[in-house]
Amino acid sequence: MTPAVPQPAAQPSPDDYGLVLTTAASEAEAQTLAQALVTQQLAACVNFFPIHSVYTWQGTVESSPEWQLYIKTRRSHFPAIQTLFTAIHSYEVPELILIPLTAASSPYLHWMAAQTQAAPASTGPD
């Protein structure tokens, strides 16, 4: 009997992944958001860094320091990220923008696939 030849892992498609942009009010909040996303396997990696934003809020032009987060994730995780942010983000209307990937290196896509759980399949009504 010949042993089974291991099959290579399927090549992840860049179409399945994206970059979510958001901001946080402080470094501590950015760290909390990043930790929750990675711990729950909703993101492979989260980068955050200080920025300064100018925006209109409730009819007034505001200018404030913030923390920009780059969330590398599966596009299918966007609804779960929205749900998480509704529960733990300090902003009433947090920025959540999904930018689809058009290309990425094969090793990086494999790494992202391994770090992020696949979205649960919907079973529908019984």
What is the H/E string?
EHEEHEH
In whole angstroms, the N-to-C terminal distance is 43 Å
Tell me the total number of β-strands.
Answer: 4
Which bin fits the share of residues in helices? 25-40%
Beta-strand percent range: 25-35%
Radius of gyration, in angstroms, nearest whole number: 18 Å
> If helices are DSSP runs of H or I spanning 4 or more residues, what is the number of helices?
3
Mean pLDDT: 90
Walk me through what this model shows.
The structure is a single chain. The protein is an alpha+beta fold and 126 residues long. The protein contains three helices and four strands. The protein has helices at 27-39, 78-88, 106-115, and strands at 17-24, 45-57, 60-74, 97-100. A four-stranded antiparallel β-sheet has the order 2-3-1-4. It is elongated and about 70 Å long.
